[in-house]
UniProtKB/TrEMBL annotation:
It comes from the Bacteria. CDD domains: TM_PBP1_LivH_like. Belongs to the binding-protein-dependent transport system permease family. LivHM subfamily. It is found in: Cell membrane. It is a multi-pass membrane protein. Its main location: membrane. This is Branched-chain amino acid ABC transporter permease. Keywords: Amino-acid transport, Cell membrane, Membrane, Transmembrane, Transmembrane helix, Transport. The chain crosses the membrane at residues 6-27, 34-54, 60-82, 94-115, 135-158, 189-210, 222-248, 260-277. InterPro entries: ABC_transp_permease (IPR001851), BCAA_transport_permease (IPR052157).
């Protein structure tokens, strides 16, 4: 029973943090209509810059701010210089460009910093509190609180603010948005900037767990992709629910079955949801008027 409680609680904690990966993908999909496969590499750039600053004597707070700032900048640049300009040729070229960009960034990182894993600092390793006998560190608590705050903020932003509603309208009905004077390109660049910041924030919590390498953060892209497929490509709430469920499911699989089965269970769950609800559990079905 104690093992089950531990697996469930830690699964929820890890899943909520992993959901940030899905949130970044949803932000871009809502405005552009395609998935970005470069979020992990954008985070890696910020993390390596932050690690260099930390090793040079910067404190954790400054390191974290630098990671988020660099990831935000890189995300904005990728959107402004590559993906958004390519959207005039269709969603497929833009989506494929994110794969090419990810491979280029990964190659450059391998060339400059090497592929060896490195330890990354965390908020604190000291125990903060105990939930049903499960000890939680300050890093765990910070990850849950920050992730929950981000999801609340994104939910309010997309549902209440004029910019958030406009960002949704850009992809839902581009022609109507243009007629109403919605700044299509500017809003898409905002989405890439926000997604870059989210990838850097995610990296701060997962790099200490997975260690930092040129490919380690990309592992989270898999969880994020599965989360938005299961939860719905355009649903922030769906990314949170599905990401949390994935965290619990993978933790239970690793504990009671075999860690090697985690990818199999993950992809099988995603396939099952696609067969039953192709738009995801919380995704919207597009209506076509004829």
């Amino acid at each position: 029973m104690e093992l089950l409680q531990t697996s469930l609680i830690l699964g929820v904690v890890v899943g909520i943090v992993y959901s940030l990966s899905g949130a970044g993908l949803v932000v871009i999909f809502r405005t552009s209509g395609y998935i970005s496969f470069t979020q992990g590499d954008i985070a890696a750039v910020g993390l390596f810059v932050g690690l260099a600053a930390y090793n040079s004597g910067a404190g954790y707070v400054w390191t974290a701010l630098l990671v988020i700032a660099v990831s935000t900048l890189v995300g904005g640049l990728v959107g402004a210089l590559i993906t958004v300009p390519l959207e005039k040729h269709g969603h497929l070229p833009a989506a494929l460009s994110t794969i090419a960009t990810a491979l280029i960034i990964s190659g450059l990182l391998n060339l400059t910093v090497g592929g060896d894993p490195r330890s990354f600092p965390e908020v604190s390793r000291s125990e903060a509190l105990s939930i049903l006998g499960v000890q939680m560190s300050w890093s765990d608590v910070a990850g849950v609180l920050v992730s929950a705050s981000v999801f609340i903020g994104l939910g309010v932003f997309f549902s209440r603010s004029r910019m958030g509603v406009a960002m949704r309208a850009v992809n839902d009905n581009k022609l109507a948005g243009e007629l109403l004077g919605v700044p299509d390109r500017r809003l898409k660049l905002v989405s890439w900037t926000v997604a870059g910041a989210l990838s850097g924030l995610l990296g701060l919590f997962v790099a200490p767990i997975l260690s930092l390498s040129t490919v380690s953060v990309n592992t989270l892209l898999v969880f994020g992709f599965c989360a938005i497929v299961i939860g719905g490509f355009d649903s922030i709430f769906g990314a949170l629910v599905a990401g949390t469920a994935i965290g619990v499911m993978t933790n239970l699989t690793s504990t009671y079955l075999d860690p090697n089965l985690v990818p199999t269970v993950l992809w099988a769950s995603m396939l099952l949801v696609l067969l039953v609800r192709p738009n995801g559990l919380f995704g919207r079905r597009k209506l076509v008027r004829v």
